[in-house]
Inverse folding.
């Protein structure tokens, strides 16, 4: 079975919430909308993939800083990361608490949740993670 996809540009014009979820309203130029979508019944379901584009017509890269918070939590529980910190002389105790304290000190933060708003700390975290990945490749 061949699946026909629709590809069009749209502009977000409204977003509201009701009891079943969010309602996103898009403005689509008539030349962009396929006849198949026009003919589908109201209530038809679609799988949607959307990418925001910039004025240069290229996709905008967004970073999900919540992923950094999750990654930092995973890293603090990673025994190999603790070993990396011990071998580089940054900690002398391989406990999760020692790893967490070391990471927060290196990043200059009080809580890992600050990675969602502190771009400098997020950049430092990515650098530390890259160093760790390089170390793992050489072990």
């Amino acid at each position: 079975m061949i699946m026909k996809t629709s590809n069009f540009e749209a502009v977000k014009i409204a977003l509201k919430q009701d009891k079943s979820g969010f309602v996103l309203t898009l403005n689509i130029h008539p030349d962009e909308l396929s006849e198949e979508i026009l003919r589908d019944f109201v209530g038809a379901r679609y799988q949607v993939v959307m990418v925001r584009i910039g004025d240069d017509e290229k996709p905008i890269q967004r970073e999900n800083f919540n992923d950094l918070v999750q990654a930092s939590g995973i890293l603090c529980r990673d025994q190999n990361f603790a070993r990396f910190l011990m071998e580089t002389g940054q900690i002398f105790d391989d406990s999760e608490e020692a790893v967490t304290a070391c990471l927060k000190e290196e990043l200059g933060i009080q809580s890992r949740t600050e990675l969602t708003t502190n771009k400098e700390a997020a950049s430092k975290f990515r650098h530390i993670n890259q160093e760790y990945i390089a170390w793992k490749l050489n072990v």
Q: What stands out?
A: The radius of gyration is 23 Å. The longest strand covers residues 10-18.
